[in-house]
Structure prediction request, 313 residues.
Amino acid sequence: MSQPDLVSVIVPAYNVEPFIGQAVESVLRQTYREFELLIVDDGSTDGTAGELRKFRDPRLRVLTHAVNKGICEARNTGLRAARGTWVAPLDGDDAWDVGRLTRLTDEARRHPRAFIGSNVLFCFSGPRNEMVPWKTLFEDRGWDPGPITRLSARDLVRYGLDVKPLFPLEIVRSEGLSFSQEYWGHEWLVFLLQLIGLGLEFVLVDDPSYHYRLRPGSDSVSHSTIRNQLKGSTFLERLPWLDDETRSLLHDQTRATRHRLLTTALLERRWGTAVHQAVCDPGSVGYLLTRVRPWLRRKRAASDLTGEKTSPH
Prediction:
């Protein structure tokens, strides 16, 4: 019987003291045991480092940035230190189902030239920081792809499936791929489309084993992040190997992202910027109005499931 492949679990962590213990424990409890756990403390100023010192598992290594460099650079630090055949990303305020690595590595053995994603379970953060399940990514997208699906670049863009998958480290290193802070907000979409461009399959399993924490304010995106997303969309639209339909979908996504500049300017009270955006891009006003109702539904769901009152930000 062959030796199981080593998986490098990379967790960027910045000021996640209330949550990092749950993230670490969800990895250490995995039924798949051949992994190393790399936590990249990205210059945290809270008690994140103290929480990490509570763990004594020899598979855990903490890499520390003296100053905050951003989540993309934290992931890149993890990639440089990784020793596994596969990389499994996890954010410091999220968690995994106990069988996630077993399920993904099973599919990886069947599809060695692929990266393996999964459905996502959206969870609200409860009053004691517990994860309160809400609904899955597939439910949110109104999509039922089947138990195991091979996806195209077009599917990835159309359904917003920039999930955090298991991917092969050797190919990433040989091709010099990394996460770009310049495209923060779209860095996963850029990274995964580049993997597809290198000839890797995108295999998706209907198993909501990645638990994504929706924190208060986690649906807020800064004005600067939207500008970075626009840079990412522009980069992707220029990829020479894209088919026309995928390029058109990206163009529509770029336009919707640009509309969000008005919303973020208002949230950050950049009144002059907001007026300029509304005048130069009238579609951004209509976009803002269409987002109010879904935002209210989400806030109401959070209140109902966690028992906490929420208020507009």
